[in-house]
Each structure stands twice: as structure tokens, then as C-alpha cells.
Amino acid sequence: MSGHDRPQSLRERKKVRTRLAIRREAFRLFAKQGYANTTVEQIAEAADVSPRTFYRYFGVKERLLISDDKISPIVEAFIAAPKELPIVPAYRHAVGTVFDGLTQEERDDFVAGEQMMYAIPEARGLVYTEYVRLIDLIADALTDRPDGPTDEMERRVVAGAIVGVLIAASHNNPFPEDVLLRSLEILGRRLT
Amino acid sequence: MGTFPQGVVAFMADGQKPAHIRFGEKSLMMETCLVSAPDRSSSLRERKKTQTRLAIRREAFRLFETQGYANTTIDQIAEAAEVSPRTFYRYFGVKEALLLSDDQRSPIVEAFAGAPRELTVAAAYRHAVEEVLGALSAVERVDAIAGQRILYQVPEALNLVYTEYVALIDSIADVLRDRLEEDVDDLERRVIAGAVVGVVIAAAHNQPLPQESVSRALTILDTRMS
Fold first, then answer.
1. Do A121 and B226 touch (CB under 8 A)?
2. For residue B9, what is the nearest residue in chain A, using CA coordinates?
3. A62-190 belongs to which homologous superfamily?
4. What is the pTM of this model?
């Protein structure tokens, strides 16, 4: 999800497009011949870029599976959410803002990425690692929220509850926006 | 989740399908919960089985640590544990199954279902964690700690960790059908289950035996959640 930072320059827009093209071709190849059997060279060739370009954009093949910036724009929007919103509604607001800002192309990429994630077992460990990272980021961001708990353990608990709800709503759900927002609304009512 | 997610089955598919489908349905204990079930077995035969299981895991972890998970074969593990490869397969089915140590339906989920009715969700789950982890024998404790350490080192294990947490959300949501009033709908049950599991993840990640931090975290959740 890279909708939050709307690319400004032509150069930026081109970068986003190259990224999306590489992921699109990679997903096509994964679906056709399997993740493990697909090499970086094949992906680069299909996307009309050099392997070097591939590595510049993604580093390793596994990185393809995590849609770029899926996390940080939401955390940024969470910190910037209206101060009067309590924690969970502020997070819900952030999710809504970032989803709304996606272009159709980014939305398609996101859906394809989510589908891949659940089809490729190697991706699950990454998903887990990303969720753990998100707990850290939210716990950190809570120090910037007016009603963020002062105790570190409390911040981790609140962050954990939010992320657990994200997992529950997102798993095997290619485009979980609606369920996600409804789930966060419920959590907002139950968690103070 | 009654069936194991397709991807993981594919990942583990080396002709062992039935074993890990069974393994998936058992909704293995996670993290805090990823420890052997307390030995409630009465018979000598049952105790022997538990000992064999623990011995295989112990030797496997030792080999994983010295030569890496991917480089360790089932034959090597069986030899080190002084059992036949056939016995190994009977106990674990696939190598990946070593990383998760449950051998019955998650005792924590069962203890959660059986926790006193008057307890809130978070308090009941905490009660279950304490009951099950508190009942571990010294040997099981050592096994659990070794298992946890391996879990965070082996990339293949993290795939399972994620899968099992998702299964845990499903199991808890299922139990909540009985623990909560009837007007609480499916989505709301999933939200509550998700919050509990998220808090467990936050407290358990990278902790060798996270009983204490999970208990504390669930106490905090309990004061904040209605």
C-alpha cells in the first residue's frame, strides 16, 4: 500500500510503476510455475528490467511478497490522526485514510499480493515477522498519542490487541478493508 | 480452521499428507502455548511415549543447533534418539512437526473452555495459560524452552508460527460461542479472539518461556477490555 505518499514527480511515478510491474510479473510466474521454481532472472526478464534493477527494488525474492510500505503509511496516519480520537478509532481512521488513497493499480497490486501471501508458505514467516514489527511500531507510535499509555508493557498490549484484530480480519481475505474497519470499530467499543 | 491451509500442506508435502493434516486440525499450542502438553497420562505405556517424544525432540534440537535445521535429516535425528525412522514418522509425521510440540488438542484452548464461567475472556485465557504451563514437569519445561529457541531461529518454523496463531484465533473464537452471550456475533467473537492472540504474540515473541509476560499482558488486557 503506497497510497499515502502520493508520488510527486514523474521520476517517482515511474518508480512506483516499475515496482508494480515487477510484482505483477512475479505473481504471474509464481502462479504458473510455483514460487520456489521461479528465479529472479526470470522475473526480471518478464518485467523487462535487469536483474540489477530487480535487486535494487526488492533485494531478495521474498521481499516481493510483502507489499511495499504496507505498514509505515498507516502508522504515520495513526500518529497524525485527530488528537481527540481515542487509540483504536485513531488506528481505524488511519487504515481508512490509507486505503482510500490507493489508486486502482495499487489496489490490484495489493489484492494480488495478499493472495500470493496466502498461497505461498514461505511468505507466512514473513507475514508473522511483519506483524511483530507492526506491534513494535504501534507501541512506539502510542508515545505520540495523547491517550497512549505511559507504561511500555501497556502500550505493547494495546498494540498487540490491534494487530491481533488485523490478523483475524485479514487472514485469507484478499481485500479485507471492509471487515478490517468493522473489526476495528468493535475493538474500539470494547477496548479502552 | 478445520483444514490446514493449502500452502502449508504443499510446503510440507513429501508424501506425508495425512500426518500434517492431522497435525493442523489439532490446533497446536502457540508460543506460550507451543509447549508439550502436561503429562496427565496415567499408564506406564503413556509415560514411555512421552519420554520417547521428548527424547526425539531433544536430539533434533541439538542437531538443528550444531548443523542447522535444513541440513538435518530425519535419519540423523532418529539415529541420535536411538529410534527407527519409522518410529520417528509415527511420532511426528514430518520434520516440521518437531517444531510444534503439542500431542493433543491444544490443552490451553481446552483449559480456556473449562475456565470458571464468571471469568472475563482475558482472565479466563490467562487462567488457562497459567494452569497448563504451571503443570509442566521439569523435563517438559526444558523441552519447551529449547523448542521456543529453535522456533525463532528457523525460518521454516516462523511459517508454522503464523499458521498456528491464525488457527488459535479460530479455536478461541469457537470457544467464545459458549463463553459469551448469544447476541455476540461471529465477527465480534473473532475480534475478541484476535485481540487475545495479538496480546499473546506481543508478550511471547522471542521469549523462551513466556508464561510470566503473557500473564501480565493478559491482566492488562483484562483491565482495558469490556
1. no
2. A121
3. Tetracycline Repressor, domain 2 (1.10.357.10)
4. 0.78
